[in-house]
């Protein structure tokens, strides 16, 4: 009952934040010069002013901005994201086609990054100032400083071109009719390189964060209590200290899911991953306003929901929060 | 008061702890020796920084885990030297042969595990009890330390409990495997006065019931008077006096002990002024060549600054060139 109330309270906060995001998206995009009519006219290789005006009228772009905004908002409430004028298809179906790929990529990257970061950070802190700590810290710094696009290209060169063990792009092998377990394996093998590219920076970040957090927790009295009980150093580190030290990492990971969406545009482009990131990139290039607004709106909902999940997770990980 | 003449359970011999610093080695504990018999409470008193907690931590070998230091001497538990034990064997002593409780119960329990789990862990590690049996025993222990409705409390977290209750849980953890020795490092300092009395009463009761030896580290002379059988006074890393508690309170022999007692009893003083010991503790980096208390001592003579005084033997030990057995 208590936890239901907690969920309800958190969920209630979601509504105004999503509305706020809608307002912000709309304003920002309308401040950018040029609209879909301009682009279509330009692509048709020269059009009369009358034709462009006619296009604007049919898209509703000739109305005052506030009217356009309320029409947009009214449609949002019914989950009607409009039609992409460039691709001539409903925005929602375009997004629905692409979102699963992005969600798969991001979830894999953030989950693996969080788990590995916690593991490496814990080990480094347990071996504080020993050689293993130095190795982990140096590698983390290296991974932290590596640009994503370069890493992606180098991984392709090494694993796809030189070794030939992993596919260099796409999400699945095209033109194969295979049973679903093989399909899962096929997608997984395509997922490895983009997920590593997207996640490695975060592995480094969480390793450093976890290490610092562990070193702080190590100074707390309850660690001495555990040792005085006869708990082994391995168990002190992985159980007693780590359970307390992982809270900041989880918080950070929750905040950074939105960040990661930005990074996934680049990664999806490098690896030809058919996700939202590429769709967004294309929409931006083509001034496909409806599609842009739709993607921004859906991804902001993704981020808000992710934060909600992290909030709830926090209640599980830290009993003091569950009250 | 009677003193058990049994063979000591715990004997500390010539324990020294040195911390290397950038300004030179700092000796936090210098040549500390004492013995402790079953059913007996020995209090170690002294002001902050005198080395009493450092000594307690190094008995269990906990010091080297969190700081760089050098520990020498011998710690004998039932005649077995703990200093020469392997890490594995030492872990069995911690929580098994010697239990320890700490000053701040707010910080000493892990906030993300239930109190029951924290007690049961000890039982599972040392006794190899299966989960169900460990749970039943942990509930018994919660009951033993006077926590009401222990079965419901088992699944609660430290933040659900008051400071006094948490210290009771700490005691339950320390006593889970029925250790021969309980080291209590300032167990009541963070608690308010009524709770202090309850916790001290509990330790006293359990000591008698379980036949433990208790090493009590404190700076509170009132607590010493309440529960200790013998008392050792430490100053600047050295034991300066050790005596049965009644003897020390009636007739302290070392000028430092005398100063401490005078300060503790100042409310009895008609003048209403808090008597103090003039001067400050010497820096551990610049210890005087002779008696470390000499610069502050009103009885100091020329010979006091030449060499440090040794301890006299017997049940009344004092490290002073000119001890004074004043009878009150």
**What is the CATH topology descriptor of the largest domain in chain A?**
MetI-like fold
For the biggest sheet of chain B, the summary is: 7 strands, mixed
User: What is Rg of chain A?
Assistant: 24 Å
CA(first)-CA(last) distance of chain A: 11 Å
How do the SSEs of chain A run, as a string of H and E?
HHHHEEHHHHHHHH
CATH class of the largest domain in chain B: Alpha Beta
Q: Could you give a short account of the major beta sheet of chain A? A: 2 strands, antiparallel
Give the terminus-to-terminus CA distance of chain B: 18 Å
Helix content of chain A: over 70%
User: Could you please say which CATH topology of the largest domain in chain B applies here?
Assistant: Rossmann fold
Strand portion of chain B: 15-25%
Low-pLDDT ranges of chain B: none
Tell me the strand order in the biggest sheet of chain A: 1-2
Tally of contiguous helical segments of chain B: 12
Radius of gyration of chain B: 21 Å
Strand element count of chain B: 11
- Give the % helix of chain B: 25-40%
Number of strands of chain A: 2
Average per-residue pLDDT of chain B, rounded, comes to 88
């Amino acid at each position: 009952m208590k936890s239901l109330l907690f969920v309800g309270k958190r969920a209630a906060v979601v509504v105004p934040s999503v509305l706020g995001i809608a307002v912000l998206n709309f304003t920002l995009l309308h401040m950018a010069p040029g609209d879909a009519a301009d682009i279509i006219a330009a692509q048709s290789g020269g059009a009369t002013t009358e034709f462009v005006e006619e296009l604007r009228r049919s898209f509703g772009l000739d109305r005052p901005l506030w009217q356009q905004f309320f029409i947009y908002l009214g449609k949002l409430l019914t989950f009607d994201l409009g039609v992409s004028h460039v691709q001539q298809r409903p925005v929602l179906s375009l997004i629905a086609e692409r979102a699963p790929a992005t969600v798969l990529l991001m979830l894999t990257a953030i989950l693996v990054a969080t788990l590995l970061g916690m593991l490496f950070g814990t080990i480094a802190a347990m071996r504080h100032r020993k050689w293993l700590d130095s190795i982990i810290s140096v590698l983390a710094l290296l991974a932290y400083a590596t640009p994503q696009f370069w890493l992606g290209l180098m991984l392709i060169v090494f694993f796809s071109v030189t070794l030939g063990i992993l596919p260099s792009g796409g999400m699945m092998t095209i033109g194969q009719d295979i049973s679903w377990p093989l399909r899962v394996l096929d997608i997984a093998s395509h997922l490895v390189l983009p997920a590593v590219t997207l996640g490695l920076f975060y592995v480094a970040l969480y390793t450093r964060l976890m290490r610092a957090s562990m070193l702080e927790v190590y100074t707390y009295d309850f660690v001495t209590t555990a040792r005085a009980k006869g708990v082994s150093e391995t168990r002190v580190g992985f159980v007693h200290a780590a359970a307390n030290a992982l809270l900041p990492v989880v918080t950070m990971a929750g905040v950074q899911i939105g960040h990661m969406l930005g990074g996934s545009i680049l990664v999806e482009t490098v690896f030809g991953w058919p996700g939202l990131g590429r769709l967004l990139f294309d929409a931006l290039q083509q001034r496909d306003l409806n599609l842009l607004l739709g993607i921004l709106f859906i991804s902001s909902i993704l981020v808000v929901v992710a934060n909600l999940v992290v909030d709830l997770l926090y209640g599980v990980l830290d009993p003091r929060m569950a009250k | 008061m009677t003193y058990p003449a049994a063979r000591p359970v715990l004997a500390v011999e010539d324990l020294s702890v040195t911390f290397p610093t950038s300004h030179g080695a700092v000796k936090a504990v210098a040549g500390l020796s004492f013995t402790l018999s079953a059913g007996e409470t020995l209090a170690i008193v002294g002001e902050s920084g005198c080395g009493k907690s450092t000594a307690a931590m190094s008995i269990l070998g906990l010091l080297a885990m969190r700081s760089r230091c050098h520990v020498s001497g011998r710690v004998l538990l039932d005649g077995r030297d703990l200093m020469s034990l392997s890490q594995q064997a030492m872990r069995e002593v911690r929580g098994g042969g010697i239990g320890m409780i700490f000053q701040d119960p707010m910080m000493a329990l892990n906030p993300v595990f239930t109190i029951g789990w924290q007690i049961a862990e000890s039982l599972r590690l040392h006794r190899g009890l299966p989960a169900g049996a460990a749970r039943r025993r942990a509930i018994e222990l919660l009951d033993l330390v006077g926590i009401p409705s222990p079965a419901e409390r088992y699944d609660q977290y430290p933040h659900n409990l008051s400071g006094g209750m948490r210290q009771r849980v700490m005691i339950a953890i320390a006593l889970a495997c029925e250790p021969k020795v309980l080291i209590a490092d300032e167990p009541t300092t963070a608690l308010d006065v009524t709770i202090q009395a309850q916790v001290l009463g509990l330790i006293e009761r359990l000591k008698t019931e379980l036949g433990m030896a208790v090493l009590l580290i404190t700076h509170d002379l009132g607590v010493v008077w309440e529960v200790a059988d013998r008392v050792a006074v430490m100053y600047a890393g050295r034991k300066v006096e050790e005596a049965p508690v009644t003897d020390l309170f009636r007739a302290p022999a070392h000028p430092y002990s005398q100063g401490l007692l005078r300060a503790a009893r100042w409310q009895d003083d008609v003048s209403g002024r808090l008597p103090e010991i003039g001067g400050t503790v010497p820096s551990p980096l610049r210890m005087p060549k002779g008696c470390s208390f000499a610069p502050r001592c009103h009885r100091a003579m020329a010979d006091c600054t030449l060499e440090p005084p040794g301890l006299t033997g017997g049940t009344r030990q004092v490290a002073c060139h000119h001890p004074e057995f004043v009878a009150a």
